[in-house]
Amino acid sequence: MATGDARTRGRAAYERLAWRDAYEELSAADRRTPLDADDLDRLARAAYLIGNLEAATAAWERAHHLLLEQDAPAQAVRCAFWLGLTLVLHGEHARGGGWLARARHILDDAALDCVEQGYLGLPVALRSLDTGDAAAAYRHFLRITEIADRFDDADLRALGRLGQGQSLVARGRAAQGVTMLDEAMVSVTTGEVSPVSSGIVYCAVILACRGIFDLRRVQEWTAALSRWCAGQQDLVPYRGQCLVHRSEILQLRGEWGDAMAEAQRACEHLAEAPGDPALGTALYQSGELRRLRGDFAHAERCYREAVGRGHSAQPGLALLRLAQGRADDALAAVRRTLAEAEAAEDRPRLLAGSVEVELAVGDTERARHAVDELEAIAAGFDSPYLRAVAAYGRGCLLLAGGEPEAACTALHRARNAWQESEAPYEVARVRVRLARAYRTIGDHDTARWELEAADAAFERLGAEPDRKEVRALLGPSARSRVPRPAGLTPREIEVLRLVATGATNREIANRLVISERTVARHVSNIFGKLGVSSRAAATAYAYEHDLV
Fold first, then answer.
1. Is the domain of 51 the same as that of 90?
2. For 443, phi and psi rounded to 5 degrees?
3. What per-residue confidence (pLDDT) applies to 131?
4. 500 CB neighbour count, 10 Å cutoff
5. What is the pLDDT of residues 486-510, one digit of tens each?
6. Are 429 and 462 members of one domain?
7. Model confidence, pTM
8. Which of 50, 184, 521, 545 is 20 to 30 A away from residue 275, measured at CA?
9. CB 137, CB 123: distance < 8 Å
């Protein structure tokens, strides 16, 4: 009776996404009476979702052998597939590849027409995508989706559509690609897809949108991923990746303190799950934030650790070397990395870094080639941010070539697009380039005003290396600071405006893609600075001071 109770409780916990409870109850039941294959699969998935990779692989292996004994080869192949894929995703390529090969041999020997044929097509399609053959990858993923439709398998259908979207993006057909990615996400957000597959789709879609600078989708799907993670007990995979994306969004919005906190949380969370490749991404993000703030020694440590986790340190490390005055090292690194980069999502950031380094060493011809490629990429994407990156590169190139008037035109395009993307750091950087162009033309007043605006933005962000450059351009008579209302920071003003609309802390957190705890801290700071004790009083202040 006790065994039956534990098994029943484990199944019920699994259905309500209580992974820790499911794992513990099913493990307890298994110690008394060995579980059947279906419950072993549940145990494996619950173990995986709480970060216990060893227990997950052991349970899938047992289920696989049990199903072979029961003459159920298709189901045995399904267990071998998830076992192999999980190992590959965590860096155990030899062991994982062995299980995938075993699954293929079993299926070939059985000569079955089953949905597992589609699952075993996924590694082949992914290899084509990884090696740059996006056309072949698309054909594979299309066939996989057709198999999923024929057998009405929601997980395989979502993974097939995900792959089709990724392949289309890699082929430069971004508009069609993101439509397919959105379709994959709809099946995930409506609960049609199992948790393991859902997590894969969430993270892959966000990475694809991030690669083409589709920041609207990145923010929307990251908020959805945050809600999805929050609804599951003790979830370990995917949560760290979500924190990294949240950090990147906060960085873009100019909330570098919150971005650093999220990146640190991501590093701590991912360090608890050995082998998770997302840790390299989290370390690189930490390095970027520290580089921008002038903490070069710490940034270099982060980049070094990121490389140790399989993540490239470029273009961040090259830009760090440039800031340290080591232009030759920066040049060698960025040229090598750009020559090796084949993935479509990797090139825009590398090209932007390349333009900066090449112009710094005076190689305008190489910089021109990089700008031309950036503009060609941007032309295929509906991304204001990426258009701004290309326009900024063109403006810097024209300025270096002695064409300040033409440079101003390109730089204005960049500023307008970055303002549309609400990217204060990028707007401030373009202001500095505009100021240099205005000075060349002889418009010293406008140049000074642009520098003062950039100085204010860099001060708020804590961008010390950029601020040092601006202060040098401003000279000894740098402007005095203008106090903000009640000393509120720009983020606190943003939160106050939302409080004044009647939004709850949860609604504000979802809107700004930050945690409720961070919102509560901002609200507490606002109350203290305004000398009020209620949201109603804070709302009244906002209206009285024209902040809404």
1. yes
2. -90, 80
3. 85
4. 18
5. 778 777 888 898 899 888 998 888 7
6. yes
7. 0.74
8. 184
9. no
